[in-house]
Structures are given as C-alpha cells and as structure tokens.
Amino acid sequence: MSLSARPQRRVLIAKINRSQSFAGVNSTADRPFRNFSPFTPTVSRKTGSRVSRMFSMSHKSPPPKVPQPNRLDEVYEALKKGLTAYLEVHQLELEKLSTQIRESKRNSRLVSVAGKRDGQVKSIERFLRRLEFHASKIDELYEAYCIQRRLRDGAHNMVKAYSTGSPSSREARESLAEASKGYKEYTENMCLLENELESQLGEFHIRMKGLAGFARLCAGDQYEIFMKYGRQRWKLRGRIEVNSKQVWDSEEMVFLPLVTEFLSIKVTELKSLANHVVVGNVSCETKDLFAALPQVVAVDINDLGTLKLSLEVTWNPFDKDDQPSAASTVNKASTVNKRFSTYNQSPPDTPSLREQAFYV
C-alpha cells in the first residue's frame, strides 16, 4: 500500500511482541507474523558501485501542516533507546581499549602499540561527548514540544468551551478569538519543533544483500526493486545468474529518517519489454532501525513469503558521515539479524490498480 495512507496508521501500530522484528503496516486488518529464520543470499555486484544519495542536506522537508504527537512519542522513545545503546557500545569499546593500553605499557615491546591505542581512546571519547550533547539536544526539543502540546490542548479546550454557548458579549467573542489564535500559534510551533527533531534523526545506510526465493528464483530472472521513503527514492535492477549469484546495478542508499512516513518497497519481475509483473508491494515501519549495531533484516515481499528481500541497515546518529574511524569500527564488529516482518502485501503476480498507480 502507499505510504500516504496516513489516517489508518494509528490502528495499525498495535502492540505486538516482536522485539526482534521490523514491523510492517497493514491497511485493513492485522495478520499474524510468519516466523522464518533470516537468510544471507550470495550477491555479486558490479564494480564501481558507490553509495547513492538522493537528497541534499540543504533542502530540508517543509514542516508538516498537522502535528503528529502520538507518532512523535513513539519515534522519540525508539530514538532514545538507540542513542543509549550507541553510548553503551562505545563505552564498552573504550573500556576494552583502556585495558589493552594498560597491558601494553607493562610490556616494553608494545609501547608503540599503546601509543596508537591512545589516539583511538581520545577519538572515542570525543565521539561519546558528541553523542551525549546530541542526546541532550533531542531531549530539549522534545520537552519544548511537550510544552507546546499542553498549551495547544488548553487552547483547544478554551475554544471548545467558548464555542458551546453563543458568544453574545464582546468579551466572549474576544476571548474566543484569542483562544483560536493561540491554538493556531501552538499548532505551528509543534510543527516546527517536529520538523527540527526530524532533522536530528541521523541517517539510515541501507545495503542491498539480495533476494531469496527458494525454488522461485531461477537463472536469467530479472527484478526491479523500488523503495520510497517520503520524497526519497531508490530504484535498482538485478539479474539472477547461475550458481544462485545475483548482480545488482546499485549497492547502497542513504535515507534520512522521517517521523510520520513508512518505507515502501515494491518488487517487480521483468518478464519482457512490455510485460512487468508486480510480485509484491509492502510498507514497513522504520523506528526499530535506531540501533547501535548494523541489522540484517529480511522482508517478506509477497503474501506467501516465498520471495524475500535481505537488507543490511546501519544507523548513523548524525546527519553527516564524519564518524571517527576508531568509533566507526565498533559498529562493524558484529551484525544483528532481525526479522523484517511485513504483511498485507499485494497478492503475487496480480498487480492491482493501486499498485499500478503507485509505480511512478
């Protein structure tokens, strides 16, 4: 389904025990999750492929016209959890390096090694201070947002109270106008703060791992994957070769996290020049991607789960790829396998009118 289907989202994000899942979005009724183990298909890529960036940092998305406080609460909680995990991972790395330095200094032959690790320690310490400052800035923005929300709720109650009866007196009419003006002002402030907090969410680095389809994938099959995340787009094509190898024309994409949008993934099988069959079109939750370690997530593309998409997602809490080299190695030390659960996909091989309209 399209990501623009906002009105039903509140009902869809129900509380489900899925601590190791990457939840999907449903447009009609929730379906149970399928418990398949993650996979890592063999993928070969064309040489010279680089990270794609389909956005410019100087072009921010405009503030929303209607605030989404409930959604912002969910994103804030996930963001704080991710930042806390980031701090813990780098603190452990700092303690590990400090222990290695003390051991190296006891051995005169390892003095040069201790000097190099001293530089790594200082780099991680700077990165930790930056993380702490970043977390405090997000807390300040969220507190300011909550204040404006309470003021807006109070103004709304005043408007409702004054509108209940007929404001015959001039004082009542002036009070109603003042309350309405305050409600509009607080709403605008919430939208601005929501947009500012969205600009502090960092980056999602998504790496294509490949498709897995059990008996569905055959040598010679060609697929096109189209990802849509707000105004950001990523389209890539791949071919299944012999020995289950896959060749894709694009390797990585960097997406800016969004507060109210979901990641939409559409997979099309290229049968011939004029015969393209939509295999599946899914919309997925992204707030669970705020994690300290890279995550390999598996996506059910079609309704039966016979075709899956494997992605490796790495979250950088800052909006520029200037993470210190010593600290960046911490994230690459291990990878977490997660389930990228989705449901309510379009039936396989039967593209609907909505899917055809979605494909632009």
UniProtKB/TrEMBL annotation:
Biased composition (Polar residues): 37-50
SUPFAM superfamilies in the record: HR1 repeat
Region listing for Disordered, in residue ranges: 33-70
GO cellular component: cytoplasm
Organism superkingdom: Eukaryota
Domain FAM65 N-terminal: 16-359
Family: Belongs to the RIPOR family.
Name of the molecule in the record: RIPR1 regulator
UniProt source species: Nyctibius bracteatus (Rufous potoo)
Lineage, uppermost ranks: Eukaryota, Metazoa, Chordata, Craniata, Vertebrata
Gene: Ripor1
